[in-house]
Write a structure and sequence with these properties.
With 197 residues, the chain is an alpha+beta fold. The chain has one domain. It contains 4 helices and 11 strands. The longest helix has 15 residues.
Length: 197
């Protein structure tokens, strides 16, 4: 799992003009897509950057996938193709809600996605149709009991955490309690952008 430095993430936000939340317990949830990604692998990272009760910067990182699994690339739920989130900054697009009956981050705001419709096993990020919609591409976990080896059916376009899920969702719960707000922004960047700074 790739683990960036706090300074690198702040530099990416600054260089791209993204708003970094600076309030106590206001979470910056950041997906880092592996530029050398292997299809069907949990080789991405989801980070949570925030200031704790003391005002100190805190960073937690989780193994994840920001890309759909092979099964849904070959058998998309939508006739227009499998959804792949486009890199970008999406303010207030998630809330603590439900995914298949359990507590997760539920998509409530519009996000840009590619529609990969060539029915091969590799995610396509170029020359594919784009949409800007709420499609319930949630942030949820894979196998809760042990890390999964491959993505397969775990993601049809969702952002999926593969380890320490309970720690992640507890950070979200604590944020809601501390701030009184149940809206979370999500920023998806590329590992190349982080490594260049």
């Amino acid at each position: 799992m790739y683990k960036p430095r706090i300074e690198q993430l702040k530099a990416v936000f600054k260089s791209k003009g993204y708003a970094l939340k600076e309030g106590v317990w206001e979470l910056n949830i950041i997906g880092i897509r592996n530029s050398q990604s292997q299809p069907n692998s949990f080789d991405d990272t989801i980070c949570v950057l925030f200031k704790d009760h003391y005002g100190d910067d805190t960073l937690h990182c989780f193994s994840a996938t920001t890309d759909p699994g092979q099964f849904w690339l070959l058998h998309p739920l939508n006739v227009k193709g499998c959804a792949i989130m486009k890199e970008g900054h999406y303010p207030n697009v998630y809330k603590v809600g439900k995914h298949r009956g359990y507590k997760a981050l539920e998509q409530i705001g519009k996000i840009s996605f590619f529609r990969d419709n060539n029915l091969d096993a590799t995610p396509d990020f170029k020359n594919t149709p784009e949409i800007f919609e709420v499609i319930k591409a949630n942030i949820h976990h894979a196998n809760l009991l042990q890390p999964s080896v491959t993505v397969d059916k775990w993601s049809a376009g969702c952002q999926v955490i593969n380890n320490d899920w309970l720690d992640f969702i507890e950070l979200c719960n604590q944020s809601v309690l501390a701030t009184g707000k149940n809206k979370f922004s999500y920023t998806l960047i590329n590992s190349n952008e982080v490594n260049s700074l």
